[in-house]
Amino acid sequence: MAIKVTMEPPRGMKAGLGRTFNQMITQDFIEKVEPYDKWRPLTYATCFLHSVVQERRSFGPIGFSIPYEFNASDLDASLIYLEKHLNDCSSKNRRYEWYAMQQMICNIHYGGKITQELDRDLFLTYGELWISENIFSSNFQFNQQNLETNYIIPDYVEHTNYVQYIKDLPDTDNPMVFGLNPNAALTRALTQSRKLITTLIDVQPTDAAAAGGKSPE
């Protein structure tokens, strides 16, 4: 007898970002690259992008054509590249190459798993919006339209402040933060309900004695 254990990403931006900032991002990490006031927002934006594309898969075909297996390794590789790029730009006193960063993260690290062109275009759009110089603006927000809760990039020096900020995020996300219609939440809820019911039916024990006994009637 064998037991198979699978690890699924946490659901919701609050849970996804919380997991990242509790397991991957530390105080030493946000002080890893100078200037810190550029490195911290870029780190948060990349982590936010990672949580968005993982959460978008829960919307089924309206999220991505195929449920791609994005994972923490993709985020880790992206952050390592950004660290090297910022250090290289700092040592050579040159401007950040945003297009190169967008292509490396969206087209290579994550994009290597993408097989549908429309999904690739979607991912590159996220990169153009969130891996750009705009994230250093004081009025930057990830959602394009104002919502009840606007998703911004917090600017803290202490890691504990980031963790607390993420804890204060709403438990339920408005689909518009993912670029989806608000009605997408209903579609996701129906899909998850069907999946739950199917799973419950699949794990029901079979009646081993039924073959030699009376019929259910």
Report what the structure shows:
The protein is mostly helical. Helix content is 51%, strand content 0%. The longest helix is centred in the first third of the chain and has 21 residues, at 36-56. The model has no long low-confidence stretch (mean pLDDT 86).
Name the beta content range. under 5%
**CATH topology descriptor:** Helicase, Ruva Protein, domain 3
Question: What would CATH call the class?
Answer: Mainly Alpha
Order of helices and strands: HHHHHHHH
Distance between the termini: 34 Å
Principal-axis shape equals globular
CATH H-tier superfamily: Region D6 of dynein motor
What is the CATH architecture assignment? Answer: Orthogonal Bundle
The count of helical stretches stands at: 8
Radius of gyration: 21 Å
How many strand segments? Answer: 0
Estimated structural class? mainly alpha
Short summary:
This protein has helices at 13-23, 27-30, 36-56, 72-92, 98-109, 117-130, 159-167, 184-202.
Highlighted features:
Helicase, Ruva Protein, domain 3; mainly alpha; single chain; 217 residues
Secondary structure layout plus pairing:
Blueprint: H1 13-23, H2 27-30, H3 36-56, H4 72-92, H5 98-109, H6 117-130, H7 159-167, H8 184-202
